[in-house]
Amino acid sequence: MTKVVVLLAAVAQVCLAAPRVIALDKAAEIELRGLKSANVEYRGRAALKLSQAGAQDNALAILKGVTFKDGTIEVEVSGGLAPEAGAAARGFVGVAFRVGPDAKQFEYIYLRPTNGRADDQVRRNHSVQYASHPDYPWPRLRKEEPEKYETYVDLEPNVWTKMRIVISGTKARLYVHGSAQPVLVVNDLKLGAGEGGVALWVGPGTEAHFANLTITPAE
Q: Which pLDDT band, with edges at 50, 70 and 90, does 27 fall under?
């Protein structure tokens, strides 16, 4: 079976300290919550395919033995509509960080790939999203502070897209497609300046692929 190699800077159950390679095709390295997985070749890359095993808003593939505080998370993602996707599905795909015990709380940033080139400017403006589980889901953030936690970036469904998230204290910056400037700036992460796990995040009605995940701790 083709291995999906993930470069991580991690030490089991402690803060990230030195590079470590994790093969995502090893079930012992990943805890699936509401997801089913397969290792596949997808658009020229060895990839981890994730899709929801049931209906839930926050399905995660948590990397075991990884604790993250500040630093950079880079990953290539592809999100598309699952065969059973409903009308509200957008190919939701992203990354969760500072994941708490039992995944009861976490921060996450994700893409809505089908919004990127929609023939509707409002949908385009909702291409990228920050949210925080459980108290600050996207509907609350959009209602209370519209436009602050989401923005536009050119996206396509079922196409590899590079995400780079830089996290420091209560701040996060998202860079897409290798851009020099962030497309999303978050200055008030809702869980504060804590630490926790790292997970791949998949929204409802989505068939997602992940490859080339690199986690680098802050110096």
A: low
